[in-house]
Amino acid sequence: MQVNGQAYRSIWLAADGVGVEIIDQTRLPFHFHIVRLESVEQAMTAIRDMLVRGAPLIGATAAYGLCLGLRQHATTEAVENMAAQLIACRPTAINLRWAVERMLRLLLPLPPEQRLAAAYHEAGRICAEDVATNEAIGRHGATLIAAIHRNKKEGQPVNILTHCNAGWLATVDWGTALAPVYKAVELGIPVHVWVDETRPRNQGASLTAWELVAAHIPHHLIVDNAGGHLMQHGQVDCCIVGTDRTTASGDVCNKIGTYLKALAARDNGVPFYVALPGSTVDWTVSDGVAEIPIEERGEEEVLQLQGRDEAGTVHTVAIAPVATPAVNPAFDVTPARLVTGLITERGICAASRSGLLGLYPEQGQ
């Protein structure tokens, strides 16, 4: 995607072919800052502290993290230890485990001296495949937006509500939930996006809005509790969100607050779509509410806010009494019954086991 006229991905191999560079998403939207990763420990910190976030990007970062770790230790024991530590960084997003296990399947059968070059090659493949996958999600999702547009009055945009950030910053490029928006704009379809602020980390306000500004796409930022009101008054044509883990039965686990949007959409007859790559489906899990581990993050994310003052200085401020504690579940699960359809790189399907197996028949073997 473009930033100030220059094409970027969210992660890339440095010019020296050794280090890995990322965009520090904790500093957006106020500062565009590139960080170089040189060790597996730095990759773990980037994942854990959310310099990178979004299921596909977390997976890509973990793959490159193994590459960086292999520069120091290439024994089987070291590789397995690094893999376990990387997987433990974020428990909910399945792409993290998926990417690490893919790397292990390639690396462990090889002699130690061949592992480093093979790891860099495979991490590059994971990134390239992610870009192609997300662009395909965009193409399929754009057909839904085009169908809605055909039923709109001439000149009216398609109003799409999204939650959290599932744009190119959450992937290597294109994004999941925002990929159909970007593709629709390429097709000349007028689009307007309602951007949930997405408390507590405000990824909608700081990341999704930043992406849409860069892409010159009309949008408005709204507080998280405004979505239902807009739906009641016919101002939302569809919802499109991402997911960090999808069960084999079609339940989706996404940023906290997604479930409430799905309930409001169902009550108001608004289509609720979830965009995801096949790698985000956890075929070992059927009941999302009972089986998906929900990450509990630090209470400071709820008790503090970051903002910029009139002088341009960024501050972190407290918003609650000093003695008030907070609970911070990072995700919730939206049952499949509330999901209109799943937008994948292979097409659009019902949020059900049969729907998913129709697109991924190899998983039923």
TrEMBL record:
Enzyme class: isomerase
Top-level division of the source organism's lineage: Bacteria
Database matches in SUPFAM superfamilies: NagB/RpiA/CoA transferase-like (SSF100950)
EC number from the UniProt entry: 5.3.1.23
Chain sites annotated for binding substrate: R53, G54, A55, R90, Q203, N254, K255
Marked site (Transition state stabilizer) residue numbers: C164
GO biological process, one term: L-methionine salvage from methylthioadenosine
Catalyzed reaction equations: 5-(methylsulfanyl)-alpha-D-ribose 1-phosphate = 5-(methylsulfanyl)-D-ribulose 1-phosphate
Keyword tags: Amino-acid biosynthesis, Isomerase, Methionine biosynthesis
Database matches in InterPro entries: IF-2B-related, IF-M1Pi, IF_2B-like_C, Initiation_fac_2B_a/b/d, M1Pi_N, NagB/RpiA_transferase-like
Involved pathway(s): Amino-acid biosynthesis; L-methionine biosynthesis via salvage pathway; L-methionine from S-methyl-5-thio-alpha-D-ribose 1-phosphate: step 1/6
Example of a GO MF term: S-methyl-5-thioribose-1-phosphate isomerase activity
Xref: NCBIfam families: eIF-2B_rel, PRK05720.1, salvage_mtnA
HAMAP family registered for this protein in UniProt: Salvage_MtnA
PANTHER family listed in its UniProt record: METHYLTHIORIBOSE-1-PHOSPHATE ISOMERASE
Family statement: Belongs to the EIF-2B alpha/beta/delta subunits family. MtnA subfamily.
Name this protein carries in UniProt: Methylthioribose-1-phosphate isomerase
